[in-house]
Specification:
There is one protein chain. The protein is α+β, with helices and mostly antiparallel strands. The protein has three domains: 133 residues, Periplasmic binding protein-like II (D-Maltodextrin-Binding Protein, domain 2), CATH 3.40.190.10; 106 residues, Alpha-Beta Complex (Dipeptide-binding Protein, domain 1), CATH 3.90.76.10; 205 residues, Dipeptide-binding Protein, Domain 3 (Dipeptide-binding Protein, domain 3). The protein contains 16 helices and 21 strands. The radius of gyration is 23 Å and the shape is globular. The two termini are 36 Å apart.
Length: 512
Amino acid sequence: MEKLGPVFTLVAILVLAGCPTLVAAQGPADQLTIAFDASLAPTFIDPAETPGIGTPFVFLYALHDALAKPLPGNTMAPCLAESWKDSPDGLTYEFKLREGLKFHNGDPFTAEDVKFSFERYRGVSTKLLHDRVKTVQIVDPHRIRFVLHAPWPDFLAFYATPATGAAWVVPKKYLEKVGEEGFKRQPVGLGPYRFVRMTPGVEMVLEANEQYWRKKPTIKRVVIKGVPDRTTRLAMLKTGEADLGYLMVGVEAATIKNDPKLKLAHVIPPAAWWLDFPEQWNPKSPWHDRRVRLAANLAMDKKALNEAERLGYSRLTGSIIPSVMDFALRIEPYPYDLAQAKRLLTEAGYPNGFDAGELTPLPPFTTFGEAVANDLAAVSIRTRVRSMERATFMEAWRAKKLSGLILTVTAAPGNAPSRIENFVLSTAPYATGGYPDIDDLYKQQAHERDRKKREAVLHQIQRLVHERVMFGPIFEPATLHGVGPRVEEPAVGLTPQLYFAAPYEDIRLKKP
């Protein structure tokens, strides 16, 4: 966890103690300060690096723009692309690009940039996209055509939503001039805010792009501070040092809710928290036994976890696929049943439980990890909660270097197939194994253009995942953010597909 110094710690203690002597540290009238819930990684600001989670889009929505993205009232709103159409045979998708746009450095936006960004993309689902797209044809400077090898009903879901970052555009000429490292130091985009400077891990400063095509931002400067410690984020809200405090849960969320000067904003995005069993594919591991995985599910008191972490606002679930996603099958959560969990462990040969090693929660949700560990301990599944920095966690998870148990979440938009592709298949970037029949069913639905038939196959996959207890689903989280007194419109929930405040150009401060 990032150490923020004794002054921050003291302020945090005084805030939680209700000390009346705190002095407001309100920022400039034209500046919004966000206390972000993790250290800031350079990979967060490069669309090519986006993994299958929502974190990087907090920054991409400010700095960059995409052909299409979720906006208020539209889950796939035309942005850099004014319109698009697919051919009757499902083999081509043609995009008409918005004309007259310029990158932050003055370079004109053209189809060359779109093609370059797609070919440069190396984030989640890279292989899937590049394998299925036969060619990318530049029709003219403001028209581009994607030609597929075979019909793929999910092309737009994987390309034109934040399920991936492939449709987020970077400037070809600039990047070729400064190189990859130069771009990470000084990124240039098309978004509502331009990059000023970044201290890795600590702070990023952005200034308004007054020529942004959608609308001119009303806030001149946005400062995003990496503050992994929740208590410190709360202290910053209390003193006015921060205007938005991200991901406030448990005691801190309750404190905000009860403070008349602050506001607790919440939204339930298409996200799900679950317990991952990466060792279930190892025949020598206790987790290889379905009964053990089911016991862990029955041991988790999801209602109590929801109350403690999210003040009861979250939606309990039995699936890692959010129920609001296209093609999702609503699955009821496993019940809380300690007696049955203990019986299952005894049947599996573990009457006294076992040492499950490390339980690694997505940073910085250590308290959530500790709560889950306590639930498992009630049936003698013993774990040690491991704390990591978020960028390191994501790299280790994707490299399949995490063992024991993983407590994780993703809030990246998409649909049921995109979740399955990223987390369920044997080839998934975040899976350590899989089932051949599920892989085959996935391939079958990927070519099915009849929606009802396709939905039936996808529902069959989700039932199999549930029956085989591949995961330990907990809830679709209500994302809670603290809002300071200077904020008129925090933009939390304006776009329900996003867990963060967006679009940035819609955030407003109160007039002085």
